[in-house]
Write a structure and sequence with these properties.
Elements: H1 2-67, H2 76-97, H3 100-110
Helix pairs in contact: 1-2, 1-3
Length: about 110
């Protein structure tokens, strides 16, 4: 009788441990999925940012070159300042428009 109770308690402890292990695994999986979505979000935004920068670089270079033909520095300094201002403003606007929660909602709809 005593041995049966011990065996029963051991089985219950094993089941309890297994249940806690499953719960931990689910929590880690959920966190891992969130981190993957964050990484994908960052990669996608960076890719679009790079694409936009490449397109706008030529436009800005030609525009600044046309405006500053008489400048002794040929507009490179002005071009760098303009690109920096546009880039910082773009980052601020995108960051404000798409907070992390909004991106997660967006990805949930897609995936």
């Amino acid at each position: 009788m005593k041995k049966q109770n011990q065996n029963k308690q051991q089985k219950e402890e094993q089941l309890s441990r297994a249940k806690r292990a499953r719960q931990k695994a689910r929590a880690y999986r959920k966190k891992f999925n969130q981190e993957i979505k964050k990484a994908l979000n960052t990669a996608i935004v960076a890719a679009f940012g790079f694409l936009i920068a490449l397109v706008w670089k030529d436009v800005i270079t030609e525009y600044v070159g046309a405006i500053t033909k008489i400048s002794p520095i040929q507009g490179k300094l002005i071009e760098a300042i303009i690109v920096t201002i546009i880039g910082v403003l773009g980052i601020v606007i995108v960051t404000k428009l798409f907070s992390e929660k909004e991106w997660l909602i967006f990805f949930k709809k897609i995936l």
